[in-house]
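Good morning N.,

You mentioned wanting to compare the apo and holo forms, so I went ahead and generated the holo version with N-carbamoyl-L-aspartate. This is what I fed in:
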Amino acid sequence: MQFQGSDILTTKQFDREAVTIVFDLAKHFEKVLRGQEFLDLARGKILANLFYEPSTRTRFSFEVAMKKLGGDVITAVGEEYSSLRKGETLYDTGRVISQFAHVIAMRHAQPGSVSDLAQGATVPVLNAGDGPANHPTQGLLDLYTIWKQRGEIDGLRICMAGDLKNSRVQHSECDLLMHYRDVKFVFVSPQSLKMPTEIVANLRLKGFEISEMSNLSEAVSECDVISSSRIQIERFASMEEYNRNTGIFVIDPGVMAHVKKDAILLAPLPRIEEITREVDDDLRAKYFEQVKNGVPVRMALLALVLALKI
Ligand code: NCD
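and this is what came out, ligand included:
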């Protein structure tokens, strides 16, 4: 995979070698940042953060990453900035923002929207989440957290619990995990929020073992990594439908009692009610460290697409 000048639109672009390049560089940044708060690698470079769908973590994480590289950030947040409001196409918005910035990070509610903007942009565009479709930088930082915590990814048994239909994060995690050997998947979700059939079929085609379970305690007891997602309220047509699907699978100390001693619990956050607050003190709960890992991983991606001299 060629990074320099490239868009990062989907985890499907990555092979194992490309993931390793990102991880090694992220590790490097973590090390150098221990002795130094800010680097000087991206001086004079500007990141445009376009967040047309709500975000706190991902937007701040991109912003901090660019600032730690020594660059600057301009930001548009909220739908009122959306090109759709005045009728500008995403293609044109991409072309326009490219006149101001050297790289763009964008979130939008429509699948494929970030690619539309990237068509018009003349600078690299990083997908910060396009509807339920993809969230490549989050997928990478989740795997980075697993890699750091467990030392390796091959051979792991992973439980994915929550809104598997709509979680772009878990979709991206699946794309990346396909590059590792003997990974076993255990899926737990409400009946109407199962992992999309294309993803399941693709995993099976590649020879991965998948089980779908309905008992959360039983499912987690077999796994080394538990990846939890909230029920994605913004993807439901009505509150009734949302309410029918919440509170079914909740990770609390009772469920944690079934989790292996050396397993880890991940969640991209926000957490609503799928993980109770008491679990935060459990040493296996790694979601706050996971948030922190977003900075070195996004620094690595920015440095690679901008071809910064490390
Ligand atoms: C995730 C997202 O936006 O998809 N959050 C994030 O980027 N940290 C997960 C979510 O919103 O549930």
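The longest strand covers residues 46-51.

Happy to go through it together on a call whenever suits you.

Best,
F.
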